[in-house]
Every structure is written in C-alpha cells, then in structure tokens.
Design goal:
Blueprint (H helix, E strand, L loop, with lengths): L10 H14 L12 H8 L3 H13 L3 E4 L3 E4 L29 H8 L16 E2 L12 H13 L15 H15 L8 E4 L1 H13 L5 E6 L3 H9 L3 E8 L2 E2 L13 E4 L13 H14 L2 E5 L24 E6 L11 E4 L2 H15 L4 H12 L2 H27 L4 E4 L6 E10 L3 H10 L2 E2 L1 E2 L10 E7 L5 H14 L2
Parallel strand pairs: 3-14, 5-6, 5-8, 8-9, 9-10
Antiparallel strand pairs: 1-2, 4-11, 6-7, 10-11, 12-13, 13-16, 15-16
Helix pairs in contact: 1-3, 2-3, 5-11, 6-11, 7-8, 7-10, 12-14
Length: about 500
C-alpha cells in the first residue's frame, strides 16, 4: 500500500492526506475505486473508524464520491491533470507579467528599514536592560485594576457584548476630557475625543484622513520613528526641522514647507532629546499653522513624568483657531499591552476621523474602556501617577548619580528633567565604534541602544538612549558601572 503511518499526526488525517496527494498528482484517475474501508483498515492495522473519518473528509471536500451499493470512488469531476500544490515561493518573486504583487502603499511599507529594538521576551532580556518604553510591573496597581475588570465582567450586560461606538465609550471620553482639562490644560468636550488603539493608530488615522501621497509633513529632527514610518507609508514627504534647546525651531521651517498639510511635534517632552518647546516657539508654531492652513499633531506621550515643577500645559490649550490635534496614550503610564490611546480633535475633524476609525476596526475593545473609565474617574489613575512619578524620580537620580560617578565628564546628558529616559552622548566613543561598544556591553549583561536611528542624518558623535522605568535603583547603578568598563 502507498501509505505508511507515522507517530505524531492523527491517523485519519494521514490516510486523508495520502489519498489527497495521490488524487491531485493524477496518480489516481477520476472514477478510480478506493479500497473498501474494512480492507484498508486491515491492511494498515488500524481501526475501521480511522479510515471512515478519512473517507468522510475526502467526500466532504469533493475529492471522492460515493456510489450506493458500489463503494467510494475518486470524483469524476476532477480535471485530467490537476496541479500539485507546492510550497509558496518568495512573495517578492511571485508576480504576474508586467505587474507588481503589492500596491503602492505595500511597496512603500516593504521598502521601509527596520525600526528600533523589537519586543523581547522576559526570559531573553538582559539583566540590566536600559530599553526605552518598558515599564515596571511593580509600579502598576495590578490589584486595583484586576478588581475593576472582574467587577465589570460580573456586571456584564448586553451593551458590553455588542459593537460599540467607533468614537469610544461615553464614560471614558467624559473622564478623559475632565482629566486632560485639569492636568494638561486641554480645552475639549467629550464629543471631541476619539478612543484609539494606542498612539500608532492615532498616527495612522491622522495620516489617512489628512494626507495624500506627495503631501509635506513637518517633523522634528530627531523624532519618533513610528511617526516617521507612518507618514512615509502614506507617501508623504518629510520636511525635517532641527530641534535645539527650545524645541523645534519654527523659524527654520523651509519656505516650501509653508504648504505642508501637517506638523508633528512632541513639545512637552521632545522625543528623544527631552527638551521642552518654549512658549515663544509654541506661539510661533500656532501662527504658522493658522497662516498656512496646516494642522499640528501634538504628541503628548509621557508629559505626566516631570520632576521639576508641574507638567507643561499643552499647545492645544493655546490654540484659538482649531489647528491642533492632541494625542495621548496610556502605554507609557500604565502598561504597553493596554492598547488604549486618544485623539482630541477640532470639531470639523470629528466626523471624518470617526468614519476612518469605524472602517479600520469598528471600535476599541469595550471591557478595557469601561475599566479605564472607572480607573480614571475614581482617581486611581492620578494616584498611580503620583506614586510612579516619585519612583521614577528616584530611578532618575540613581542614573544621574551613576553616570556622574562612573563616566563623569566623558558624557553629556540631555532630557533629565522629564520622562523615563535620558540621552547620553559619549565623548570617548567614536560614532563608528558604537556598535562594537554596545555588543561589549551586552556581553556584560547590559542592554543599551543608539540614538542615531531617530535622526534623519546620523549624528557625528556616539549617543545612547537610556530608559530606566523598568529597572531598580540597584540595577541602574550596577548596569552603569558595567557600561563604564566597556566605554573606551
């Protein structure tokens, strides 16, 4: 018999696959009679039920047909010379003559370079990993969150189990409007807020609604890679404007950028340098947007963590012409797996953004929205922020002390007054030797990451972006001591 059973795959599936291969290869012609189930089961040494299950699947999928009182036969409707399925080849090589397998959007995505360090499992993380964007699990009030989720689950209603509004649940939008007004000076009504799946969806929706291929977008240099890639995928042309100690230099927006459709900025804590845009620059940016008809996308990604004075109020609160789109996320202040963020929109943009959100994914998960609305509305969120701010301040102090003790004047530090990361410029390491130093640090159990990928033009000196939110003060000191040993 053509079939040899092996251990590991269900026997009925093995019999089915063997007949299927023979039929597709043309080795069993149409109308060929299959062995009786009893005879085949005896030959293979298996239960008759195994063969019956295989034959039932062949019949159900049209490879075979039964004839009353006669037996089971290869289906007569199969082509004379059917093609044998082969493993798919490299998709980049498979195309119809004279055509591309991808759309223009798909080709732009395929051509984008890799972005930053990817996600790493807990098991594979280095002991002293200064990776940006990884929070400390110990900081989050997990017990409170689990209690809220469990209570919402027990009180589940039909409303929580059907499609929700694309703009988000009303209680969450109301809680966000109140919180943003008192903490960030954001002027908005709940109906101006759209709940999204994190900042990346906020960026994607903005590009879909406001940008056409060839449009210009003003971006900071350096800047958040995730935003740059979204705009590039949309076919937009990035107009990079340098960042100095006062933030994006509005005076250096080139004349051709006066027709830009959008400016993307991180004014309250510039990413990755950490500088704060001055009031004069904020007002100048608003004047530019009003004069040119452009929109400003204000990314307020971790402004809650400020260690000297209260958080800087948002540019959106200064806007009197309806030119600012304000976006925020809970990924950095709660946990990244909670894919919840929000957009605060000028009224004329609410309808098109809501339609785009519906087309993208209908709505954001309802249970998480309900839990977050209670978490924010009952004050748990702001209590968590106060505790986390104190813990991050201690980690920041430990990092600054360790850098001073072990590296001293061999480093220049930026962005120390806010956020959960620093940028450290290394005077003893040439830019071309940074990869070798990073590898040497990894060999010592220390994970550090270059800042160069965030620049349009790579900087001439070696720099690192050091995140510290997930490390203890002791681990920070040990990690920097080990790093200093390889900085040569």
């Amino acid at each position: 018999m053509f079939l040899k059973l092996v251990v590991g795959e269900p026997l009925g599936q093995q019999v089915y696959h063997a007949f299927r291969r023979k039929i597709l290869a043309g080795e069993m012609a149409p109308a060929t009679r299959l062995p009786s189930t009893r005879a085949l089961a005896l030959e293979l040494g298996v239960s008759r039920n195994v063969v019956l299950l295989a034959y039932e699947q062949l019949l159900a999928e049209g490879y075979a047909e039964g004839r009353a009182g006669s037996g089971t036969y290869v289906a007569a409707a199969l082509p004379e010379t059917p093609r044998i399925p082969r493993p798919q080849r490299d998709a980049r090589r498979v195309r119809a003559p004279g055509s591309s397998p991808l759309s223009r959007y798909g080709r732009r995505l395929a051509e984008l370079p890799p972005v930053g360090p990817g996600a790493v499992s807990v098991e594979n993380r280095l002991p002293y990993d200064f990776r940006y964007g990884v929070p400390s699990a110990d900081d989050f009030p997990g017990g409170v969150w689990r209690g809220i989720v469990a209570r919402r689950m027990r009180a589940g209603s039909l409303g929580a189990m059907v499609y929700g509004p694309p703009e988000g649940q009303a209680p969450l939008r109301q809680a966000l409007a109140a919180y943003l007004k008192r903490s960030r000076g954001v002027a908005s009504e709940p109906d101006q807020i759209i709940v999204v799946n994190g900042s990346q969806q906020a960026l994607d929706l903005t590009s879909r609604v406001l940008l056409d291929a060839g449009d210009r977008v003003v971006i900071e240099d350096p800047q958040y890679q995730g935003a740059r890639r979204v705009f590039a995928a949309a076919g937009a042309t990035a107009v990079a404007v340098p960042v100095d100690a006062d933030g994006l230099d509005v005076a250096r927006i080139r004349p051709r950028a006066t027709v830009a459709r959008l400016a993307y900025v991180t004014p309250s804590h510039q990413f990755p340098t950490g500088v704060v845009m001055s009031l004069a620059r904020r007002l100048a940016l608003l004047e530019w947007a009003e004069r040119t008809g452009a929109y400003i996308l204000e990314d307020d990604y971790d402004s809650e963590y400020r260690y000297e004075g209260r958080p800087i109020e948002a540019v959106q609160g200064l806007d009197t012409a309806g030119r600012v789109i304000y976006m925020g996320t809970f990924s950095k202040v709660l946990f990244p797996a909670l894919r919840l963020g929000y957009l605060v929109l000028p009224p004329p943009l609410v309808a098109p953004f809501t339609a785009a959100k519906w087309l993208t994914d209908r709505h954001t998960a309802t249970l998480e929205q309900e839990a977050l609305a209670e978490f924010v509305g009952d004050g748990h969120f702001e209590r968590h922020l106060r505790r986390a701010r104190m813990r991050h301040a201690s980690r920041r102090a430990a990092l600054l002390d360790a850098l001073t003790e072990h590296l001293g004047d061999r480093v220049e530090i930026m962005g120390a007054n806010a956020g959960v990361h620093l940028v450290v410029w290394l005077s003893d390491v040439p830019a071309r030797g940074l990869d070798r130093m990073i590898a040497a640090a990894a060999a010592e159990g220390v994970g550090v990451y270059p800042v160069a990928p965030y620049y349009i033009e790579p900087p001439r000196r070696a720099g690192l972006i050091l995140g510290y939110a997930s490390l203890t003060e002791s681990d920070i000191r040990t990690g920097i001591r080990r790093l200093a040993a390889v900085v040569t």
